[in-house]
Amino acid sequence: MSQVSSAPPFDDWAKLASEGNFEEVSAALESVVDWLERGGMPLDISIQCYESGVLLSERCAVMLRDADLRISEIETRAFPGRVASLSDDDL
Question: pLDDT tens across 15-71, in order?
């Protein structure tokens, strides 16, 4: 198995995990997956990639949860008499 010629952009991923918008974080997560699928990295670098992916994934989940809450609040104001629909989590 050949070694990769450059290092993964860990600093960029860390910055995006804390400051990026959803699209940037999602793209960074795709980049992590690409690095892992490419292979050829030492185990410790692969684990760092995996850890970066987990952080980016958690950030995406938080942003999606916040967006869902915001949409629910907007719908509650816009349609005050309407019963909230059940989400998959409620089933």
Answer: 999 999 999 999 999 999 999 999 999 999 999 999 999 999 999 999 999 999 999
Q: Each residue of 52-86: b (16+ CB within 10 Å) or e?
A: bbebbeebbeebeeeeeeeeeeeeeeeeeeeeeee
Contact 53, 32 (CB under 8 A): yes
The model carries a pTM of 0.79
**Structural domains present in the chain:** 10-77 (1.10.287)
Classify 18 as helix, strand or coil: helix
